[in-house]
Every structure is written in structure tokens, then in C-alpha cells.
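Shipment paperwork, digital attachment
Item: protein structure file
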Amino acid sequence: MEYLEFELPIKELEDQLQKCKVIGEESDVDVTETCEQIEKKLKTTITDIYKNLTPWQRVQLSRHPDRPYTMDHIKAICGNSFLELHGDRNFKDDKAMIGGLGKIGDQSYMFIGQQKGYNTKTRQLRNFGMANPEGYRKALRLMKSAEKFGIPVVTLIDTPGAYPGLEAEERGQGEAIARNILEMARLKVPIITIIIGEGASGGALGIGVGNKVLMLENTWYSVISPESCSSILWRSWEYKEQAAEALKLTAIDMKKLKLVDEIIKEPLGGAHRDREKTFKAVSNAIEKCYNELKNLSPTDLVNTRMDKYANMGVFKG
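Attachment content:
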């Protein structure tokens, strides 16, 4: 397992515990008591560290290389029932945006989300989770298919932003995202949106308009990343921690500002420390949200979604 800078005290204790166990196995020395003391200290250290995370530390956790990505969630939740669908029927298939049909229990869902890579080769293939216009057009095509057959839509957000390259602009990146926001606002089936990692800028909003918007505990959702904000305001990346604080981008901040509906609790230490528990929590959250939305008429679904977004930012003096 890889460790972030603030997790190093945990690594130290875990290494000590491992060495202690090895000594116990390889010699006749009874190390039970020592191991128990280290385990106790480890538990306390983990609780102390993760109880007082700063916004910047949560940003780091959302980018943890061992954190489960969109496909990990879908495979764990749907098992063999997932059928991936490809292409926007216009330009090409964008590997940064994945989508397809899958089942939770007996209920079918249309899953759509950004996918990052696990190593250098797959990161290049997936374009680091930054979708081109064809990715957003593929997502819209799948949403329209779901609407046609009355299938609820689940979107999983994990992107550092939409791809900002010249070719993306030439093919209408801004128009593709704006079109998705418009069409999602008036889609006649339930939309459940979950931020499972990074939720940055228009790249996240392009698949982020939902009846229910949820965030995993150690994720962030903002108009700009802390590094980019720091480089604009201070002409340097050094102030990213202050920027993260000021942007109010954590799940707790978002819930307080009524921009998301619920926070899905992660296992102690982050989603990567107990993947199975995380997958179960996400699956339960999807089912709970769907049960709340399934009896609403198409008109009510659209109206409540429109009202939800129209009320954001309303201030009563």
C-alpha cells in the first residue's frame, strides 16, 4: 500500500507491528503483549489522524493511487451483469468516459462515469479521467437510451476536469457540457449522482445534474482545483492548502451549503483501506435513493430536479 505524507506515522507503526510478528514467528520469544501495545497505538493514531483531516488532506485522499475508481465500483456492485456500451455515434469512443447497463438486485441501472488509469499505460489510454466532447456526447446518448426504456441513471464522478486540449475545443467541449446539463435537467427518469473521487469544474458538472447528489466522505467538488486556484491567485502552487480551505470543497462544506444531499461514510482511513465496505456503502446508497425516487412521475422528477438547482445560491437577507 502507498502512504500519503500525513499517513507516515501509520506506516511506521504498521512496519513495527509486522516486524514484531515476524520475530514472534521466527523465534521462541513471546511478543503477544508487544504486538497488542503496537496495535492499540496504531488504532489511536489512525483515529487521531483521520478525525482531524484538513481540506487539502481530503483532496490528497481523493487522489490516492489505491482508491477505487469507477470501474472498480461498477464491477463490485453489478458483478457480471454489467454490459459496457461504446461510442457517441458521431466521432469516436472516449475511453475516459465509460457507461453501460448493470443490475443491483433485480433493478437495472444505466451507469456512467469517468475512469482513470492504474499505471502509465492505462492513464494515457484513459486520458487521466479527462473526457473529450465525444465522452460527454456518449454519456448523453446513454442517458437518452435509459430514458427511452425507463431505466434510472447513476453517474459516478471522478475527474480532474474536462480535457482542455485544442482538439477538444475544436470539437465543442463547452457546447457538449452545456448540452448535457440542459438535457440532464429535463431527463424523465431518476438520476443519482455520486462523487467518488475528484469532482472538478465543468468536467464534473457534465454528468453531475441529479435528483440526488451524494459525496463519499473524502472527496471534493469545486469549480477549480486547489492548485489551479493557487496559481491564479498567488502565481504559485505553494498556496494550495490555503486555496483548499477557502474553496469550501469538502463533502461537509458541500452538505452545509445544500449543494449535495448526502455524505456516504467511508471506512476509517479512506475508501482504499476497506474497498468492500466502500462498495457496499455506495450500493446501499444507490438503492436507498432509487426507492425514494421510483414512485415519482416523470413530471415530478423533472420539476423537483429543476427546483433543486434553481434554489442553489438563493440568499434571504
